[in-house]
């Protein structure tokens, strides 16, 4: 095969934590790998993708269209949510690529590979070049993550995360912990209060005029609707009604799409206004005079913050056992740290240790973690949410259900019954409720009391 060079949308995929998965359960890991490749091949075939290489648990593929590449990535992530769940990372960049039977080369390959490494499991990260091609897409939405310094890439690159179809999107604090992070997104968001039902009614009744587009803040599209309506009205006067019929159908289609759109997607798309934020900078020659500058320059992050950031980095990279060690170090310094407990719940969920995941999620909420929407959507907690006891756990206020002590039906009928025995067992029960004793310790101490040894 002679080498070929082309401009393409380049996609890298990789299964997060696959090496650890192989060590824990090789048969499950092979099932996950096979599912990844099966879904990838099906979606690529339907959307015109060309798989160039299988690289261990990852792949390299190209598309002639950036839109097709992103649509394919979203379809893959949505499908891979189903059991067995595949924690896949996907990075996409548009650039030159040269490939032959020995491999693929080019700056485009390097960039897309590094974007994939930054990606969270269940997410799709794209570069600004790809975003420029999809920003006017009918249903693909993305949020800007900021600028990142990628290894061996000369300049910082703007990255975006696809937010359609409830894909995983990163938390700002998680991004700031990454060493590649260069600049926070220069936008702030303020929400509006547009109603999906109102938009539906306006599209159904006045869609031909584009009134619903004005309501949704899409002034340009609204003006376009009005302009076409004016042309159609002139055509009707001349005896030609085709344009008006098409506009009426288009308004009806918009109404149906709005009605079928999930509320979360509607809010993300139409109830978020981005506005530029001006950031004050301290003049270079007067930095020393800034009241907090000298103190900030000398200060070092606390060990707790350092451990937390290292844990988040390991979690993002799929090194779950390593992340657990860092978060345990955080708890050594602060046993009530809600972030550490939450991330430990994520780690144990990803390695399918159900009991530990429930314990740490319960402790996170107990210590003040209140982002329940994140708990509902975090792809890292997918395994935990699939457990049959999860719904009862949530209804119980994210508290663990304690097992009751085994009954002793013959205790009161014995001649040797001592009334103080019940008091002692009751005290043990109080310690169990407070978490001062484990279930095993409770049972052991209870047996000692019943034998008259306690």
The mean pLDDT is 80
**Shape annotation:** globular
> How many beta-strand runs?
11
Count helical runs: 21
Name of the CATH architecture of the largest domain: 2-Layer Sandwich
Radius of gyration: 28 Å
Structural class: alpha+beta
Name of the level-1 CATH class of the largest domain: Alpha Beta
**Low-confidence spans:** 185-190, 273-299, 410-417
Domain tally: 3
Task: Determine the fraction of residues in helical runs and give it as a percent range.
Answer: 40-55%
> CATH topology of the largest domain, anyone?
Alpha-Beta Plaits
Let me know the largest β-sheet: 9 strands, mixed
Task: Report the β-strand fraction as a percent range.
Answer: 15-25%
How far apart are the termini? 81 Å
CATH superfamily of the largest domain: Nucleotide cyclase, GGDEF domain
